[in-house]
């Protein structure tokens, strides 16, 4: 260590700067809001979209009408369509079971949405009811509250909240930092590098 640039430097002791990790509890954002039906019935946007209104296919607007018609039909066969409610300007990406006739038993099976795609967003379970003209690519549609899916998601939300409550109770029971020690000796608020 004869390097003059190191002269006068304080020796580095990594343990001096070590602070034990603080306990972490990661809570995932629920997929739905509490009281979905109430939210559906009271929210202004849902009130507007609950009534029959004019809708339009919004995909591939820059393409000729014949190509848009073909792409709309192809999208429907694949199980998706982009529509807009004209009055409110609300755009939706519809995801549904492709190619099933309504008398087919599989018609009532549902395609799951990817709730992990947009983390931190939650909402209300709804269904789209409507029709689009295959030539004009417009029609009439509305949103309805999906009772069955809503009940299923409410049960998941309730279970998730119960787990969080239990984890929080376990955390408090473990006493991190131990509340008894803090009450007896306020200077013990700094324990093992953890500050209150």
TrEMBL record:
<dbReference type="InterPro" id="IPR036552">
    <property type="entry name" value="CBF_bsu_sf"/>
</dbReference>
<feature type="compositionally biased region" description="Basic and acidic residues">
    <location>
        <begin position="175"/>
        <end position="186"/>
    </location>
</feature>
<dbReference type="Pfam" id="PF02312">
    <property type="entry name" value="CBF_beta"/>
</dbReference>
<dbReference type="InterPro" id="IPR003417">
    <property type="entry name" value="CBF_beta"/>
</dbReference>
<feature type="region of interest" description="Disordered">
    <location>
        <begin position="175"/>
        <end position="196"/>
    </location>
</feature>
<comment type="function">
    <text>Regulates the DNA-binding properties of Runt.</text>
</comment>
<dbReference type="GO" id="GO:0035206">
    <property type="term" value="P:regulation of hemocyte proliferation"/>
</dbReference>
<dbReference type="GO" id="GO:0043565">
    <property type="term" value="F:sequence-specific DNA binding"/>
</dbReference>
<dbReference type="GO" id="GO:0016513">
    <property type="term" value="C:core-binding factor complex"/>
</dbReference>
<comment type="similarity">
    <text>Belongs to the CBF-beta family.</text>
</comment>
<dbReference type="GO" id="GO:0003713">
    <property type="term" value="F:transcription coactivator activity"/>
</dbReference>
<protein>
    <recommendedName>
        <fullName>Protein big brother</fullName>
    </recommendedName>
</protein>
<dbReference type="GO" id="GO:0006357">
    <property type="term" value="P:regulation of transcription by RNA polymerase II"/>
</dbReference>
<feature type="compositionally biased region" description="Polar residues">
    <location>
        <begin position="187"/>
        <end position="196"/>
    </location>
</feature>
<keyword id="KW-0539">Nucleus</keyword>
């Amino acid at each position: 260590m004869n390097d003059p640039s190191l002269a006068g430097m304080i020796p580095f002791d990594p343990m001096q700067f070590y602070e034990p990790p603080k306990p972490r509890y990661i809570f995932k954002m629920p997929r739905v809001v509490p009281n979905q039906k109430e939210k559906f019935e009271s929210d202004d946007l849902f009130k507007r979209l609950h009534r029959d209104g004019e809708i339009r296919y919004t995909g591939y607007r820059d393409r000729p009408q014949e190509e848009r018609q073909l792409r709309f039909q192809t999208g429907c066969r694949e199980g998706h369509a982009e529509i807009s409610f004209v009055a409110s300007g609300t755009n939706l990406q519809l995801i549904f079971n492709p190619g099933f006739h309504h008398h087919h038993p599989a018609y009532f099976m549902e395609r799951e949405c990817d709730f992990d795609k947009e983390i931190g967003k939650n909402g209300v379970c709804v269904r789209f009811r409507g029709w689009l003209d295959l030539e004009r690519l417009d029609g009439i549609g509305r949103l309805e509250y999906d009772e069955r899916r809503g009940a299923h998601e409410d049960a998941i939300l309730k279970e998730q909240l119960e787990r969080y409550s239990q984890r929080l109770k376990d955390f408090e029971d473990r006493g991190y930092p131990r509340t008894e020690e803090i009450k007896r000796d306020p200077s013990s608020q700094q324990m093992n590098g953890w500050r209150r």
